TrEMBL record:
PROSITE patterns: HIT_2
Organism: Kribbella deserti
Alphabetical list of InterPro entries matching this protein: AP-4-A_phosphorylase, FHIT, HIT-like, HIT-like_sf
Short sequence motif named Histidine triad motif, residue ranges: 148-152
Pfam families given in the database record: HIT
Keywords: Nucleotide-binding
SUPFAM superfamilies linked: HIT-like
Region named Disordered: 1-20
Domain HIT: 54-163
The protein's name in its UniProt record: HIT domain-containing protein
Length: 189
């Protein structure tokens, strides 16, 4: 049996991940850069501004280094280091505040205006068909950094439903199998 366009490997053949065995119907899209997000690398150690909050640190960096796209008086727009889609950005008040109800009128205004500008800009640049706009308030609601409010603007396109295994027969894996194996083997004893 020869390999197919979907899977160029023969059953039992060693592939680039060093594994062997019969191939299944899934292609693998490796995204090892997402392990930093999964393991909480660079995540604040506490809830105060001085506890390593990246949203407090970013405004002090040059825009290109901090991935800041636009600045306003009370808030800024910054690309997400771990995007769900290309162009995924966040609108963040400069002030270290956790809850939307704690924002000043000027902060609410800048967050809203920057969000509108982000949507217009992303539509112009990439033709986004829609957006998911929102913020997760608190750890329980899924906020990755709950101590510093941030609003996500995630561009969406028809067909980007992210059901990779179902639609594209592809799995997105954040780590190579050899790395996962080494971690498990080391922890087993």
């Amino acid at each position: 049996m020869t390999g197919t366009p979907e899977s160029p490997y023969q059953p039992g053949e060693v592939n680039e991940q060093g594994g062997t065995g019969a191939q299944d119907a899934f292609l693998r899209l490796w995204t090892p850069h997402r392990m930093a997000y999964i393991t909480g690398e660079n995540k604040p150690v506490g809830t105060s501004a001085g506890d390593g909050c990246p949203f407090c640190r970013i405004p002090g960096l040059p825009d290109s280094e901090g991935l800041v796209v636009r600045r306003a008086e009370a808030a800024y727009a910054v690309l997400n280091l771990y995007p769900y889609n290309p162009g995924h950005l966040m609108v963040v008040p400069y002030r270290h505040v956790a809850d939307y109800t704690e924002l000043t009128e000027a902060e609410v205004n800048d967050v809203a205006v920057l969000t509108q500008q982000a949507m217009r800009t992303i539509r112009t640049v990439s033709g986004a068909h829609g957006f998911n706009i929102g913020m997760n308030q608190g750890d329980i609601a899924g906020a990755g950094i709950a101590a510093h409010l941030h609003q996500h603007a995630v561009p969406r396109w028809s067909g980007d439903t992210n059901f990779m295994p179902v639609v594209a027969q592809t799995r997105v894996l954040p780590q190579l199998l050899s790395e996962t194996r080494d971690l498990l083997a080391k922890a087993w004893s």
